[in-house]
Amino acid sequence: MNVALILVAAGSGERLGAGMPKAFAPLCGEPLLAHALRGIFGCAGVSHVIIVAPGAHLDECREVAARVLAGGRPLVDIVAGGADRCASVEAGLSALRQDDGIVLVHDVARCLAPAELFERVISAVRAGSPAVVPGLPVTDTVKVVDAAGLVLATPDRDSLRGIQTPQGFLREVLQQAHSPANPAAGSATDDAVLVERTGGHVQVVTGDDRALKITSPLDLALAAALLQDGSYAG
Ligand code: CTP
Ligand code: MG
């Protein structure tokens, strides 16, 4: 089964405040998108990459992809994103090719995710899990609060995982999750929750610290430090 990867990169990066879409914000001299593509292109198991880009930046995106891509593989398609993450994933789904049987969804914001993380997720889907997410134990104590900030509950930390991308799915599972027929579709911060809400099973595999999500300027500084520290090389 061919593996396609939808890279959602159409966000505006408001919280990063770089004055440009996050995908083009520089990290050690290169746009986040270039870092993300290098990790993905380094993963032999991915044969088709769909980049979901900000509508006004398709040419810039094509240039970055051409610069990073060495040789003829994988196949790369570029499509314009939507108003929110879900709509961008759906735009990516519309560009799947007939042979794509497994689909990974990945955030450009996690641009330092190493090739081995992609391989781990793909392996778990191939081994029979229809939906797979990488996760790491949380180190903070997490509390559930109400709108007024009153604590309602403190879940046992041992049972909590911080969830990352890439998330991997059998194609029909992801398509069903995002179909208008799914009452849960529409607002979600990840794709697995759409599977969960319709009773589907989602498997967690071990995540990777390098797949940290770049949201704020502090995250960008942390990512730069990781890149410069040879022991974290992806
Ligand atoms: N994303 C997308 N299309 C959107 C919104 C988000 O493709 N309309 C993508 C982002 O590019 C990112 C991922 O979804 O890779 C997670 O979103 P987030 O980290 O919130 O990025 P931004 O939306 O760009 O940042 P912000 O919310 O600070 O504006
Ligand atoms: Mg956002």
How would you describe what is shown here?
- With about 230 residues, the chain is an alpha/beta fold.
- The chain contains 7 helices and 12 strands.
- The chain has helices at about 30-40, 60-70, 85-95, 115-125, 170-175, 190-195, 215-230; strands at about 1-10, 25, 30, 50-55, 75-80, 100-105, 130-135, 145, 150-155, 160-165, 165-170, 205.
- The strands form 3 sheets. Strands 1, 4, 5, 6, 7, 10, 11 and 12 form an 8-stranded mixed β-sheet that branches. It has a two-stranded antiparallel ribbon with strand order 2-3.
- Helix 1 crosses helix 2 (about 60-70).
- The longest helix has 12 residues, at about 115-125.
- The radius of gyration is 17 Å and the shape is globular.
- The mean pLDDT is about 95.
- It binds cytidine-5'-triphosphate and magnesium ion.
What brief labels describe this structure?
two-stranded antiparallel ribbon; 8-stranded mixed beta sheet; alpha/beta; binds cytidine-5'-triphosphate; 234 residues; 28% helix; globular; 7 helices
What low-confidence regions span 5 or more consecutive residues with pLDDT below 50? none
Discrete helix count: 7
* Beta-strand segment tally: 12
Mean pLDDT: 95
Q: How would you classify the helix and strand content by structural class?
A: alpha/beta
Helix content: 25-40%
- Give the distinct bound molecules: cytidine-5'-triphosphate, magnesium ion
Q: Per the principal axes of the C-alpha atoms, what is the gross shape?
A: globular
> Compute the gyration radius: what is it?
17 Å
Strand content of the residues, in percent?
15-25%
Largest sheet: 8 strands, mixed
In whole angstroms, the N-to-C terminal distance is 26 Å
Order of helices and strands: EEEHEHEHEHEEEEEHHEH
